[in-house]
From TrEMBL:
Annotated organism of origin: Methanomethylovorans hollandica (strain DSM 15978 / NBRC 107637 / DMS1)
GO cellular component, one term: ATP-binding cassette (ABC) transporter complex
Task of the protein: Probably part of an ABC transporter complex. Responsible for energy coupling to the transport system.
Molecular function in Gene Ontology: ATP binding; ATP hydrolysis activity; ATPase-coupled transmembrane transporter activity
Localization terms from the record: Cell membrane
This protein's name: ABC transporter ATP-binding protein
ABC transporter domain location: 17-252
Primary residence: membrane
Family: Belongs to the ABC transporter superfamily.
Sorted UniProt keywords: ATP-binding, Cell membrane, Membrane, Nucleotide-binding, Translocase, Transport
GO biological process: cobalt ion transport
InterPro entries, alphabetized: AAA+_ATPase (IPR003593), ABC_transporter-like_ATP-bd (IPR003439), ABC_transporter-like_CS (IPR017871), ABC_transpr_CbiO/EcfA_su (IPR015856), Co_trans_ATP-bd (IPR005876), ECF_ABC_transporter_ATP-bd (IPR050095), P-loop_NTPase (IPR027417)
Amino acid sequence: MQEALKQGNMRSATPIIELRNLSYSYGNSKIEALKDINLKIYPGEKVAFLGANGAGKSTLFKHLNGILKPNLGEALVHGEKISKKNISNVRQTVGIVFQNPDDQILAPTVEQDVAFGPVNMGLSEKEVDSRVKEALELVNIAGLEDRSPHHLSGGQKKRVAIAGILAMRPEVIVLDEPTAGLDPRGAENIMNVIEKMNHDLGITIILSTHDVDMVPLFADRVFLMHHGRIEAQGTSKEIFKQPGLLEHVHLRMPRIAGVFELLKAEGLDVETKVTPMDARDEILRLLNTPRE
Ligand SMILES: Nc1ncnc2c1ncn2[C@@H]1O[C@H](COP(=O)(O)OP(=O)(O)OP(=O)(O)O)[C@@H](O)[C@H]1O
C-alpha cells in the first residue's frame, strides 16, 4: 500500500472507488438491500467487508462495476460516475470474482475460459496467450490449461475465476467470499494469491468474508455491514476491540481477541490484540511485568 495511505494521509489521494448516498432495492421489493451507503476506497488498499448473511455485501459489490444501478445516489470510479458511456472502461478497471465460480466459468477449457476477457477486449492472439500464461502462473494453476473447469476442485475453480479477471489486468479486484467452501490450507493459499496480487501488482483488493480470524491478518480497513447499512468502518484494531458492536452485527471477535477479553475478565491489565504477532508481544510484555 502507498506510504501516504499507511500514514493515514488518505485525504491527499483520490479514491479509486466512491459510493455516495447510495440506496438500492431489488425489483419491486420494499426492503432496501442497501441504505444510504457512503464510502471511499483508495488505490492499493486491501479492504474487507464483514456482515451476517443478507447484510448487503454482494449487492454492494455489484454496484462497484455497474452490474447493478443504484436507485438513489451514485457510484464513482476514479472520480467519474459510472454511466453507459464509461461502463466498458469501468469493467476493465474493476473486476469482480463472484462467490460461486460456476457463475463465472463458461468455456470448455481452463485456457479458453481465462482467455475470454482478453479476447473480448480485442487484444491480439499473442497478447491473449501471454496474459493467460501470466495469470495462470500467478494463481499457481499452470498445467491445467486443457482441463474442463467444471471438473476441477472448488479451490482450483476459484483460481480459474481469479485468473480470468487477472488476465484483464484490472486496477481493482473485488472478491465475494473468496475462501468460502475451501479447506483451511486451500483458504490460506487463495489468501496468499490475493496478497501477491496486491503486493506485487499493486492491485486494490476488496473482499467479503465471514472469516473474522483472517481479516486482521489481511485488511488495511474493515467495513461492517448490517441490514443494508455500513454500521462501522476502521482498521481491524479499531473494529475488533468493540465486542458490543460485533455482537450487534451478529459477528464474533477473532479467537485471539477473545483470549484477551478472558484475561481482562481475570483482572489482568492487558490490551486486546487481534493478530498472532501482536498477541505474542502483549503476552511477553505481561510476563515481563513484575507482579505487585
Ligand atoms: N436477486 C435478488 N432479488 C431480490 N432480493 C435479493 C436478491 N439478491 C439479494 N437479495 C436480498 O438483498 C439483501 C442483501 O443480500 P446480499 O446477497 O447482498 O447479502 P450478503 O451480505 O452478500 O449475504 P451473504 O453473506 O449471505 O452472501 C437480502 O435481504 C437478500 O435477500
